Amino acid sequence: MRASQQDFENALNQVKLLKKDPGNEVKLRLYALYKQATDGPCNMPKPGMLDFVNKAKWDAWNALGSLPKETARQNYVDLVSSLSSSSEAPSQGKRGADEKARESKDILVTSEDGITKITFNRPTKKNAITSQMYRDIILALKNASTDNTVMAVFTGTGDYYCSGNDLTNFTSATGGIEEAASNGAVLLRDFVNSFIDFPKPLVAVVNGPAVGISVTLLGLFDGVFASDRATFHTPFSQLGQSPEACSSYTFPKMMGSAKAAEMLLFGKKLTAREAWAQGLVTEVFPENTFETEVWTRLKTYAKLPPNAMRISKELIRKNEKEKLYAVNAEECTTLQARWLSEECMNAIMSFVSRKSKL
Ligand SMILES: CCCCCC/C=C/C(=O)SCCNC(=O)CCNC(=O)[C@H](O)C(C)(C)COP(=O)(O)OP(=O)(O)OC[C@H]1O[C@@H](n2cnc3c(N)ncnc32)[C@H](O)[C@@H]1OP(=O)(O)O
Predict the structure, then answer these.
(1) Whose Cα sits closest to atom 52 in ligand 1?
(2) Pathway, according to UniProt (predicted)?
(3) Whether pLDDT at 84 is above 80
(4) pTM of the prediction?
């Protein structure tokens, strides 16, 4: 999944052939990603305030912090590829510098007031996550990690936050079940790594019930604001599956092993207040004032100095990163085997044929 040196060199050549001028903001991002991919974190002495051109370059490069060279290379390749396709597509109309939208069908991505908002937008299926949605989210986080927004916020359309993995992802896959499980494990690993790597504050606005991976991921968030209508449910044993998104590590650490087992082994569904008491939720709001109160709060947070927040997050996350990558890899290998088990296949078939609901 990572871009090779050859992909990077192709992207460098492609930039010279762009039909449209990408604009200064994008040029700076390309410059910063190129420098990070080749030289690593910013090593250029800070230019004087009046040296506007070099100061802008320094700011853009410095804002990438300790982003790994490989990730910078991948982001560079992705950015060039999006520029190449958009320079061939008809104009979509002009948007303000801090207000842009990149739409995909079931994942909405908008940027406003310094916040990238990523919305699960499949309300008729309770926002269950399809394979394409996993890929859309990986891309949205990649873009948000280097754009000019300050934080990323996840929420859901409709009555649910998210009902977790779409249980038909495997039954609808083309090819054999083993191939589907193997592809699923690779996709899941990349998906969770994109949350581990996200360098800016990451917040969930949990507007309603959350199930499965949408709950376990919260252990990798910096803030979780929940409506008092939200519930938190991880029915892995009932599904013949095992925990993911590093929850086998983050949940016991956060709430102690007994309470983590209650959720991850026995599938106890928590109310928003119970989840708050276990440290999974930052704050619970009454449903009728939830949206107004939370978004007002987030807009205030988005005005805090972005570099200070990024650097503080880096300090908090730094000593955990290698552990999180390792836990993620092991959870994915375990799940790959679980998906092929009779317990799991029976549970999925039972859901799909609607013989029983959880
Ligand atoms: C790359 C692979 C990565 C895998 C990562 C591993 C992740 C694991 C998990 O996330 S495990 C958790 C999986 N989720 C569930 O088990 C939830 C299943 N859904 C339900 O139990 C219920 O639908 C409900 C409790 C969420 C809501 O119940 P109810 O209010 O009665 O509504 P409906 O059941 O009628 O649902 C409406 C509509 O949505 C479809 N749907 C809901 N959730 C899912 C889902 N997770 N997968 C697929 N489809 C879902 C449901 O089938 C209905 O569709 P229909 O109207 O019948 O077409």
Answers:
(1) 125
(2) Lipid metabolism; fatty acid beta-oxidation
(3) no
(4) 0.78
